[in-house]
Amino acid sequence: MKVTLMHGAGGEVMGELLKTLTRFTHNNAGGIGLESLDDGAVIPLAGKNIVFTTDSHVVRPIFFPGGDIGRISVCGTINDLAMMGGRPIALSCGMVIEEGFEVGDLERIVASMDAALGECGAHLVTGDTKVLEKGALDGITINTAGIGVAEHVVRDSGLKAGDRIIVSGTLGDHGIAIMAHREGFDFGGQIHSDVAPLWTLVERALSAGTIHAMKDPTRGGFANTINDLARKSGVGIIIDEEAIPMRKSVMSASQMLGIDPLEVANEGKVVMGVPEECAEEILDALRSHQYGRDAAIVGTVIEGSRVIMKTVIGGERFIEPPLGDPVPRVC
Predict the structure, then answer these.
(1) Domains in the chain, ordered, with CATH?
(2) What is the reported pLDDT for 272?
(3) Disulfide check for 175: which of 147, 183, 232, 265 has CB 3.0–4.6 Å away?
(4) Does the pLDDT at position 188 exceed 70?
(5) Strands (E), the chain
């Protein structure tokens, strides 16, 4: 078997590759490790829960409506820490740059990264740079790693029957913005990436009530994330299609492109499962934040093992995890 682009797309095919990539016996430093395949690791240290994560970023195009590879590289790591309940403290950055890359573009990327760090009070404290010959890669690749501290660790496997499923905003924005921009579609500037650092949003939700499980719907989109949450928690989920927040422009573009917006990456959203008694308070807390104004309760956790969506026409269908992301090279 040879590695294909599908193996990096976040769906079921990538899951097969991860069986090889995670075959380590030295995989846990005393808390939550690689074996859990969560958004990060947790290392107990001096009475603190140290959250640690890393991510590599390749985007085409590097600059797109609503963001760029620099903003994604910071936000992706910040958000993985936040999904574990971790307040971001410090990040590292490794850049692999192709010969001939414009220094002016590097300056834009660094400024974008710095602005994202400032939104959540984190700092980029160390890094590494490599330059490769022209043609060796597609412009630039950025790796970021981050550490944070969690008072209460949140897993992606903690859903309980009766929980309400909340999404923090409109789905499909990032993946559809990238694809529409690539294909040259003009939607009057209505479709922008949602890329954003989510710690302050998550912090507000954590202060409002209990969160049983949490994950950001990046590669593979909402469809992959909701199935991952259900599978790891050993539960079923019923989703109300009519309750899912989605921009009309994104729905229109999805139809034109033949893409299911539930299967494309988001870079500034969170999916969480919360107890029914906390749901309205947490929803209000999310809506009070600039990145959560369109938050909605979209489903309920049930006993079972499948994710079912009640459609707007009164029927039901399974939400299946995608084989891969229909929009490659987006994060």
Answers:
(1) 5-150 (3.30.1330.10), 164-318 (3.90.650.10)
(2) 98
(3) 265
(4) no
(5) 41-45, 48-57, 63-64, 67-68, 87-98, 123-132, 140-150, 164-167, 213-215, 236-240, 271-274, 296-302, 307-310, 316-318
